[in-house]
Amino acid sequence: MSTADLLFELGTEELPAGEIAGMAHALRKGITNGLAEQGLSFSDACDYSTPRRLAVLVTGLETKGPDLNNSVVGPPLSAARDADGQWTKAAEGFARKQGVTTAELDVVEEQGVERIVAHVSQKGADAASVIPELVARAVSAIPVSKRMRWGRSRDEFLRPVQWLVLLLGDEVLPLSLFNLTSGRETRGHRFHHNLPVDIASPAVYPEALRSARVLCDTTERRELIAQQVTALANQSESVALADDLLDEVTGLVEWPTALRGSFDEEFLEVPSQALISAMKTHQKYFHLTRDSDGALVPSFITVSNIESQQPDEVISGNERVIRPRLSDAAFFFSNDKQTPLGSRQARLSSVVFQHQLGSLHDKTERITQLASDIASTLGADQSITARAAQLCKCDLVSEMVLEFPDLQGIAGRHYATHDGETAEVTEAIESHYYPRFAGDHLPPSAEASAVALADRLDTLVGIFGIGQPPTGSKDPFALRRASLAVIRILIDQKRPASLHALLDQAVSKHSAALQPDTVEVVQQYILDRLGNWYDDEGIHISVLRAVLATGIDDLFDIDLRVKALNRFAQTETAEHLAAANKRVANILAKADSLDDEQPDPSLFTEEAEVALYSAVKAADEAVEPLLSERNYQDALDELAKLRGPVDAFFEHVMVNSEIPEERQNRYRLLNQLRLLFTQLADLALLAAAE
Q1: CATH number 2.40.128 given to 562-688
Q2: Can you name the CATH fold of 3-65+126-211?
Q3: pLDDT (0 to 100) of residue 688
Q4: What's the CA gap between 253 and 189, in Å, rounded?
Q5: CA 659/CA 448 separation, integer angstroms
Q6: Residue 657 contacts residue 666 (beta carbons within 8 Å)
C-alpha cells in the first residue's frame, strides 16, 4: 500500500496567544478523526502553531483505504418472496438500496429465521479525493472565543485568514476556504522574511520555515525561550519562569530573542507583587529575584519577536514602556496609604456581592460574626480574628486593587501594617485568601484560617441557599474551589469541628431567605469533593465511602479514619473481614426480627459462637479508648484479631437456626459484631467495591 505525508497550514493574522495551542490541537484531532472515519491509516500526526499559523503534519498516510466487503441482512424471506416465489416490492427496494440486483441476493438463516442478504463491496476511500472535505470540516470545528468577518466575505474566523497550504506528498490538493485557494506557498517571519516560502513537500515544512526565521514547533520555541531567559540571570539571581507566562510568550513570537532591561530602584518601595503584576500582566515580562533573600531585582526580561541589530534600542524602548506602569503602581500605593484601611469599610456598601445576598459590606459583617464563632472552635484569638475579618475586604475599594485585582489581600496587608495593625491581623488579611488554587499554601495561623473558612462558608451557603449551585462548567462564584479550601483548612487545623454545625452557624448569619435544606445540600456538596481529593492521593473511593457510612461530619476525623483504613485495606485480613462484614450485613438485612438487645450467652450451643461472643466483648473493651483517642490504626489492629473467631463462626454455626430463640440470639451477636466495626467504618463497603 502506497503512503504519503499530508500537510495542512492555515495562515492568519496574529491569533490571541492564549488560544493558539487549543486551536492547533483541535485542528489535528479534527483531521485525524476524519482520516480514521475514511479508513485511512497513518503513522503519526503532530500539530504546529505560531501567532500567524495553525498546521498539521500527518506522516505515512495511506493514499487509498482498504476495500470492504459487507453483508447486509434484509427482511425475512417470507416477506421477500410472494406465494409464487417471486420477489416482492420489499425485496426489490432492499436490493435497490444496497446497489445490487435481486438476482444477487442470497438467503441466510439467522436465529432460526431465513432472511435475504446482500453482499456489498465498498471501494476504499481515495485520500486525495476525501482530504479537502474533511480538512474543511476540521477547520469549521475549531473552537474560537469570538468570530469575526473581514472584507466583503461572510466567512468567519477568529482572525482574518490569509493563505492556505494543502499538500499530499509533492502534490497540491485543491481546497477553497475563506475565498482562498490552497497552494504550496506559506509565509516567513513578518519582519525578517516577509516573503512567500515554497513548501516542496510536507516533510521539509519545519526546516523551510526555520530558514524563513519561523520556529513552528511550539515545544522547541518554548524550550528556547526558557533557555534564553534563564541565561540572562546573573549568578546570584533567579528568574521566575511561570508556566502561564511562558506559554503566553510562546504564543506571541515566531523567532524569540530574550533581552534584559532594568527600572529605577526607587520603585522597589512599592509592594513587589504590584511590580510583578505590572510586568507580567501588562508587558509579559519575566521578573528576577535575589537568591539570598528572594527580593525583587530592579530588572526584567522581555522576549522580542525580532533579532535586532540594535538590541539596546529595543531594550530602551521596553524600559520607557514599563516606567509609566510602575509609576502608576507607585502612585496608587502612595495615594491609598493616605486613607486608613478601616475607613474604607463603609465604601463596601456600594459594591454588590450578589443582589439577593447584599453588598460586600453585608458580607463583611457576616464574615466577622461567623469568624468569631469559628475562632472558638479552632482555638484562635477571637479579638484578632474579628479585627482581621472586619478589614479583610477593605482593600477591594483601593486604587491599587482596582488597577491590579490580583493584589487583593496583599495590598490590604501593606495598608494595615502602615496603619499600625498587629502582625497577626495583617497576616490574616492577606492569607485569608489562601488557598487560591490547587496546591497553594494554606493560612498559616488559626486566626487566618477562621477568617478564610468564614469567607468560604458564607459564600457556599449563600449561593446554594438562593438556588444558584454550579452547573456543568459554570461556577461564577468558584464554589468548587471554595469547598476544596474548606476541606484542606479543616483537615490542616487538626481540631475536631462538625461541618454541619459550621454550616448551621453560616446560615444563621444570613438575613436573606435561604432554602430550608441549604445546610444538608452544602454539606453533601463538600463531602462529594472528598472523592477527587483522596483519588489524587491514590486512595480508592470505597475507603472513603466506608468511612462516610458512619455518618461523621468532622473532616479532620474523616481524614484520620480514611488514612488508617487505607493502610489496613492493603492487608489480607482486611479482605477477609470486609467479606465477613458484607455477609453479616446481608444476613441482618434479611432477618425476620432484629433488635438492639445484647445476646444471651446461656443460649449459645456452639463453641464457635461462644468464642466469637468473647472476642467481640474483648475487642469492644480494647477499641473504645482507642476510638476516643482517634487512634484508628491501633483500633483496626484490634479488630483484625476478630478474623479467626469470625471465620470459625461462619464455618461451624448455622445462623438461621430452626429454633426461634437461638436464631434471634445469633442475630443479636452478629448485630453487636457489626456495630463494633461500624463505629470506625463500614467494612462491608470495601468488599462491595472489589
Answers
A1: no
A2: Alpha-Beta Plaits (3.30.70)
A3: 54
A4: 10
A5: 64
A6: yes
Does this model's pTM top 0.85? My answer is: no
pLDDT tens track for 210-221 = 999 999 999 999
pLDDT tens-digit profile of 587-607? 888 877 778 889 999 999 999
Torsion sign over Cα 360, 364, 370, 376: positive
Average pLDDT estimate for 376-401: 96
Cβ–Cβ < 8 Å for 455, 386:
no
Residues 573 and 643 sit within 8 Å (Cβ to Cβ): yes
- Residue 287, H or E segment: strand 286-290
Sign (positive or negative) of CA dihedral 425, 426, 432, 434? negative
For 314-339, how does the pLDDT look when each residue is reduced to its tens digit (9 = 90+)? 999 999 999 999 999 999 999 999 99
Quickly tell me which residue has 503519526 as its cell: 44
- Residue 460 one-letter amino acid: L
For cell 443582589, name the residue.
355
Q: Residues 58, 4: contact at Cβ < 8 Å?
A: no
Phi and psi of 512, rounded to 5°? -70, 150
Residues 6+ apart with CB under 8 A from 317: none
Show me where the domains of the chain are located: 3-65+126-211, 68-122, 218-336, 341-538, 562-688
pLDDT digits (tens, 9 = 90+) for 243-289: 999 999 999 999 999 999 999 999 999 999 999 999 998 899 999 99
> Residue 474 pLDDT more than 70?
yes
Is residue 107 within 8 A of residue 115, CB to CB? The reply is yes
Domain 341-538 has CATH 1.10.3470: no
Q: E strands of 126-207, at which residues?
A: 161-168, 171-172, 176-177, 180-181, 185-187, 196-198
